Amino acid sequence: MSLSLKKLAGETVIYGASTMIGRLLNWLLMPFYIRTLSTYEYGVVVNFYGVISVLLVILTYGLETGFFRFAGKAKSYKSVYETLLCLLSFTSFIFLSFGIFFFRNVSVSFYGGQHQYAILLVFFILAIDSFVSLPFAKLRLENKSLKFGIIKLISIGANIFFNLFFLVGVPYFINKGLFQGFLSFIHFEELGKVFFVFLSNGISSLITLFLLMSEIKWHRNYLDFRLIKPVLIYSLPILFVGICGMVTQNIDKILLPSLLGSNGFEQLAIYGANFKIGVLMSLFAQSFRFAFEPYFFKNREHGKEQYAKIMDYFIFFGLTIFLGVNIFLDWINILLTDIYTEGNYIIPIILLALLFYGIYYNLSLWYKLTDKTWIGALLGGVGALISVTLNFVLVPIYGIIGSAIALFFGYFSITLLSWLLGKKFYPVPYKPLRYLFYFVLAGIFFLLDHYTVFEILFFQYLYKGTIFVVFIGSFFVIQKYGQN
Fold first, then answer.
1. What's the rounded Cα separation, in Å, for the pair 85 and 91?
2. What is the widest separation between alpha-carbon atoms in the chain?
3. Alpha-carbon gap, residue 200 to 160, rounded angstroms
4. Would the N or C end of the chain have less CB density within 10 A of its end CB?
5. Which tens digit of pLDDT belongs to each residue from 390-422?
6. For residues 274 and 350, is the Cβ–Cβ distance under 8 A?
7. Is the pTM of the predicted complex or chain greater than 0.70?
């Protein structure tokens, strides 16, 4: 392996490990929240984070990708970086100012006047997180992967620590009558637990900003405002793609409370907790890319054959996650409480939806390699439109499963369209019949497990384990003897 490839692989491991550990730690906040917050409060938290995900894409407006593109073309990337950082600081300041003046109006309009100060914190978090996106991009450009990973993990660790402090430590101190002078400044009961969830996030965002201060510098000599127009022209289509992706993924968390009426936030809490179980598929998809991309990059001379091989492995391992989670859901349900397990029926749909999103990501190479990214933007728009429309149609009739179905068809449709278009513009020797066989086999084993019950628990789990092992074994048989 060449030195550059070793360096790439090493950086991939650091970026991948920090990202995966960070996402896993954030994922583990779910079982903590459902035990410390009411279903209504957790529903509000899920809703707020859904809004944050969409707004964060809007507030960064594709500048990270624009920075990478123009930094590579410029004589000095510092002029590009500092000009865009100046622009981003201005828009973040405008957004925060809007929040300071209108957070009460937002509360009255969308939340019945509740959670006013939590909403103010959301504006604060979004302003900081959008601003620091560019310093993080600079670290990546300068190959400072270790610093990037350490700052990310410190930020997540701080968020978890302050969640524990405010939601467990402070109530304990209050009950024991400890530190009363200090606690009188916190106003725990008045502000509510939702406020302290976002206060924890706000503190972690501030810590991130502090740790990145060495990357935040302006020199008048480097500012070139003529760069702004071409960068924005390049970045705005990327913004559209990002918004469509975030809308498809988060519109359910945003719309459910209003579509379900009086108990909307409680239903969203159940949906959100079970969705988190399904997010195991997203964790797999991201870790798969980090683990396998360096290997296949090393063998890139094989080209399209390797892309097909990647898809083969990805679909099988994704279906293994699908089957494993559903077969052993009783064990995974230890993370949930009884009221949240009522929503387990959405998990298979969420897992399949996120698997198709992973397949779509792997398919997307064709429009990137052929410079037809505008088609990717259109596909993203189609997915978002389908997801939004089906949420409005299905949720009032079927409840939270309607959102899961909407997500599935949003991702399935763009996966199918991308595959059909890819056959025309950049044909890759995928093996659709083999992939279909994997899906059918996983479906059969899923149904066998679902409808077969043994009175003796030992035989039940022996049966489950056998199904799981047979499915995995089938892959190796197909790899050895299969042709299509």
1. 10
2. 77
3. 8
4. C
5. 999 999 999 999 999 999 999 999 999 999 998
6. yes
7. yes
